[in-house]
Amino acid sequence: MAEADSEDMWFSFVRDAPATATVYQTIRARLQNLASIRDLVRKTKNGDQPLISTVEEVISHGLFVVKQTQFPQLQLDPATPSEDLLLAAQEARIWLLKMITCQSYLGRGHFIRLFRSILESETQKWSDLQHLYYALTEDEVGEATQRLRAAFAICLQGNFANKYAMDLARTEQFVFLESLPHSSQTTPAIIAARQKVALKAIDATVDTFACAVSLQDVIKQATSKEEQVCPICRESYLDFSTNKVEDLIADYPVRIKFCGHVIGKACLEEWMDTPLKDPARYPYKTCPMCRTQISGMDPPDLPEHFMHRLEHSRFVKRVRETTGLQVKECMDGVKRLMNEEVAAMELEMELEMLNEEGALARDVAKEAEEVLKTTSTDLKGEREVWMIPDIVWMRARNEWMDEGAEE
């Protein structure tokens, strides 16, 4: 579904004919009830207070909801472990509060159409969204707190947090994009960052199949400082005294997703650029540490929810129009940017620890700090080109870094 359609997701359009006076009166009452729900959600501090906190309460309230909301899918398995049930309850609560908050930014017309579709269609034909907003606004369910708890039970037992994770993500992005000033993508800084993003995307040699790793993981796996080096060039990943920060980032350790081996990025790029010695016999490149094929393979994808954004975002479309990048090249550019972000963050943390230990000369540490600060600022500017909310970006980056074989 295109982002422009996000405002009316999940329910069919009602007919254009005017509704009756009774229908409009009922719609107004439901809009007032929805306003009280939003007030209640705003008073809940960041969603920290659980709507329902015990297994017994979940089960008993579920039975109440069956009677009051006509939701057909309320089925609790008595054999569900308590820990699993409470975890699912937490996910349902987060999903519900986020959805209510996001949809509060949608126009009044959206909810008029939604409530009219509820009133003028048979219960058996209701969508999950219609059942949810029926519970949130039905007087017979009770006051705002009871209605919110009823909606929570529906989300929990309907598994909305997983079932509609993508729908929530699209709604969040719709609200995010609509909140941006239209001129935000035409500033000189954004235009310059966009060109830099394009150049990096085209030159993303190994970022499509190798991801940056945690320096602490490298340190833990090494039995000595002599092993905290690239296995190809034997240069240290962490030596700020003899290496410039730019070089440490360029040769930052990356994990090949096909086999799990960790190698300095610059060395891996040089390996990939080296011509094959016997193409007829060995037509593809393998990992320099093992014989796992790494060229000619389908590269691992970014998380599905993130790929959907890149494919359908009007801002990404603008990037493609102004740079000539294809969708795949955009994804390659994002992977490279994510790798560089992780490298900069990890080096910043390592530098901070070395400073606390007094292991670096003051002038060396100061210069490294300044370069890393500038690098982080530049990377932030490049990320802004994609216009993706930070929480969504970081989630996708973490999932991308964790995906693939381990050494």
UniProtKB/TrEMBL annotation:
Keywords: Metal-binding, Zinc, Zinc-finger. GO terms for molecular function: zinc ion binding. The keyword Zinc applies. PROSITE patterns: ZF_RING_2 (PS50089). Residues 230-291 form the RING-type domain. This is RING-type domain-containing protein. It comes from Melanomma pulvis-pyrius CBS 109.77.
